[in-house]
Amino acid sequence: MNRLAFVILVLFSLSLSAGYTAETGVTFDNQEVMMLEFSSNNLDLGEIKPDMKEIMKVKGLTVKVKSNVKWILTIEPLDNLSSVEGNTIDIQRFQFRTGKGVFEPFVINKPSTIASGEPTGDLGEEITLDFMLKINWDDPAGRYNTKLRFTLNSLY
After folding, report:
1. How many CA atoms lie within 13 A of 8 on its CB side?
2. Out of 18, 25, 100, 117, which residue is the most buried by the measure of CB atoms under 10 Å away?
3. Digit-coded pLDDT (tens) for 43-53
4. Closest to 36 in 3D by CA, of 120, 108, 155
5. Residue 27 lies in a domain
6. How far is Cα 51 from Cα 56, in angstroms, rounded to an integer?
7. How many structural domains is the chain composed of?
């Protein structure tokens, strides 16, 4: 009888553990995403006079980078500083720096690297730019402007 009870117990436990399992895969494509946010959509140096010689705008612009890949950020001017009257000031007299570094002159058709880094995380990475313009008495009066192009690229 003990033997019969043992066999029944073994068969009963085998039937309890019998079952079927299956597995399936999960896939997705996490896209490369990069974003730029600016503290302002325009950098205004204000009213200046030639006797000022150098106009400095500390923390003139803050750029926030958000990226889930390694990245590099460049800046370049699209043209010289020009007035409505058609006068120009050489863009190389307009300079920038990040942090407390040395001011670097802008050069047309020559992007300058201002920052690079690893994926930024949710908060992003802020880059603060200072600007300086060298002005003199030879520069005709007028309201001058130009465009600056910021380019954010991934690094592989």
Report:
1. 5
2. 117
3. 999 999 989 89
4. 120
5. no
6. 14
7. 1
- State the Cα torsion 105-111-113-117 to the nearest 10°: 160
Residue 88 sits in a domain whose CATH number is 2.60.40
d(CA 76, CA 110): 6
The pair phi, psi for residue 127, each rounded to 5°, is -120, 120
Look at residue 151 and tell me whether its pLDDT is greater than 90.
Answer: yes
Rounded to the nearest 10°, the torsion over CA 77, 44, 153, 101 is 90
Residue where the block lists tokens 């043992």: 6
CA nearest neighbour of 53 among 136, 142, 154: 136
d(CA 14, CA 131) in angstroms, rounded, equals 79
Of 51, 28, 58, the C-alpha closest to 129 is 58
pLDDT band at 8 (very low <50, low <70, confident <90, very high): low
CB 72 within 8 A of CB 150: no
- Token pair, residue 140, equals 């005709």
Specify the pTM. Answer: 0.81
